[in-house]
Amino acid sequence: HLGMRLKQVRDDLEKTAVLAPAHGLLVFQSTGSRDQLHPYELGDKVSQGRPIAQVVNLLHMQVKLEFDQESIIGVKTGQQAIVQVDALPAKTFKGTVVEIGKQARRSQIEGASWRRASDTTFPVTIDLPETKEALMRPGMRANARIIIRRVQNVITVPAECIFERDDRSVVYVERNGRFRRTVVQVGATSGDYTEITSGLEKGQRVALNDLGATAEAETPARPAKPTEPAV
Length: 231
Known about the structure:
By secondary structure, the protein is mainly beta. Among the domains are: 62-146, Efflux pump adaptor protein, beta barrel domain (Elongation Factor Tu (Ef-tu), domain 3, Beta Barrel), CATH 2.40.30.170; 155-224, conserved putative lor/sdh protein from methanococcus maripaludis s2 fold (Beta Barrel), CATH 2.40.420.20. It is built from 1 helix and 18 strands. It has one helix spanning 2-15; strands at residues 25-28, 30-31, 38-39, 53-56, 62-68, 80-85, 93-100, 105-106, 120-127, 142-146, 155-158, 163-165, 168-175, 178-183, 185-190, 193-198, 206-207, 223-224. Strands 5, 6, 7, 8, 9 and 10 form a 6-stranded antiparallel beta sheet that branches. A hairpin with a 2-residue loop joins β15 (185-190) and β16 (193-198). The longest helix is centred in the first third of the chain and has 14 residues, at 2-15. The termini are far apart. One of its GO terms (cellular component) is cell envelope. It is found in: Cell envelope. Residues 62-146 form the YknX-like beta-barrel domain. Pfam families: Beta-barrel_YknX, CzcB_C.
C-alpha cells in the first residue's frame, strides 16, 4: 500500500513539469487588473484553459503592423515587404504579407473625445524568413514598406515638391536661374518620392518649397534633382 502511494506521488510530481514542444524563448502572458498588468509570477492564480506563456521561435519571426485606410489600398497577401526594426537601424529584413485584417480598428487616443478617419487602421501580418541568428525579440517596434508594384526608368521628385493649384499638380522648375510654375501629371508614390509621368525631364531641378507669386523671379529656394527609378 505504501509503495502504491509513493508511486502515485511520483506520478503527480512528474505532471507538474511542463516541457516545451520546441526550442525558443519562453514569453509569459500578462495577468492582473487592467491598470496593473504584469507577467505571471510565482504564487499567481491561474485558470484552467487560460494560457500563461508561449514559446517563441526567435529564428522565425512575424511583424504585426497597423495600416491606415488610405495606405491599405492595394495591399495583398503574397506581396514583398521591407521591414526595419527600431532597435536594429542598420539592418533591413525582407518579408512577405501573409494576413490582412478584414475589419477596421479604431485607434484609442487617450483623453480624446473625437476620432479622425486616419485613426481607422487595419492589421497586417508580415512573415519574415528564418534566420541563422536570433536578432529580434518579441515586442520590438518595427515599420515596413510593402512593394505594391515596381516601375522602372521613370522620373521621381520628393513629394514635398508637388503643390496643388486650381485642382492641378504643379512644381517649380529652374530655368535660366529662375523658377517657373509647371503643370505635371503624377503617378505612383513610394515613401517620400512621387512619380512624374509628364511635365518634367530627367535632370531638371525643382524647388522644395512653394514659391507662389514669386515663381518668375530668382529665388534662393533649395533645388532638388529628380531621381530614378522609383519603387
